Amino acid sequence: MRQKxxxxxxxxxxxxxxxxxxxxxxxxxxxxxxxxxxxxxxLFLFLLSSCGEYAKLKKxxxxxxxLEMAIKYYDSGDYTKAQLLxxxxxxxxxxxxxxxxxxxYNAYTNFEMGDYLLAGFMFRNFVRTFPTAKKAxxxxxxxxxxxxxxxxxxxxxxxxxxxxxxxxxFFLKQYPKSEHIPDCNEYIDKLRGKLEMKxxxxxxxxxxxxxxxxxxxxxxxxxxxxxxxxxKEELALTTIKAYYQLGLLSVDTKKAERMKLxxxxxxxxxxxxxxxxxxxEAQTIFDSASKIKKxxxxxxxxxxxxxKKLERARAADKQKRESKQSN
Length: 327
Prior knowledge:
Helix 4 runs antiparallel to helix 5 (about 115-130). Helices cover about 85% and strands about 0% of the residues. It has a domain at about 230-320: Methane Monooxygenase Hydroxylase, Chain G, domain 1, CATH 1.20.58. The termini are far apart. The chain is mostly helical. It contains 12 helices and no strands.
């Protein structure tokens, strides 16, 4: 009985403690809600005030103040507001001493916003508009760099890649002593590597699509444009395979010729890459091509022999007829 009373007493105090804790939590939650409302109200008022100030600034005709604020927005990282102001000021200050500053900041604002295509256009426009300006060299470099950043992965259209290479090449020629020269050379190498990769992928893709003629032609062009390319060994094997597959699909009159081309390319392959990991595969193709070529040659020899027999038989038959007629 005593134990039962103690349990009931413990349960009572546990209940009271839990109830007290629950009230504390509710009070704290209410307090936090009040704090959150105050904070949100303050933030809302701040944003409202800020938007109101920006709206007034946009309507203002105090262009000196506008330029000052646009630069402040840019420096603080608020590029959207800065860009809208610089866009307006570019027309206002066009042809004046401050045009250079506005053009320069406007280009960089679009760059910071990630619009590399528009930024590249604006940097190029700066160079054309202010060719003797101190910042012309920087803008010429940024023009190329924007196209570099806009260059997509190799599988996509490479128009911007070609443009970036052209712009970097122009920069190297125009500013041969620039501090950006090492970067330009590095970026050009990367861009050319991307074009090389796209060319290589096209060669392989044609082969996979069974367009063996196109694959062979593209491999020849690829090796001429990129003589030191890293895929040369693999493409040499692909050439052997392409000639072999093309031979299999050819009529007999062209089959032997294409099998011979596969064999000739195998011999070049072995001479150039004597320790290639593809030697076994290349050897298998060579052996098969040799058998097919020999079979075709044997068939051709047999055909010619049969043709000669027929011609001899016809000649003998003709001679007999002529002998009978003379008798």
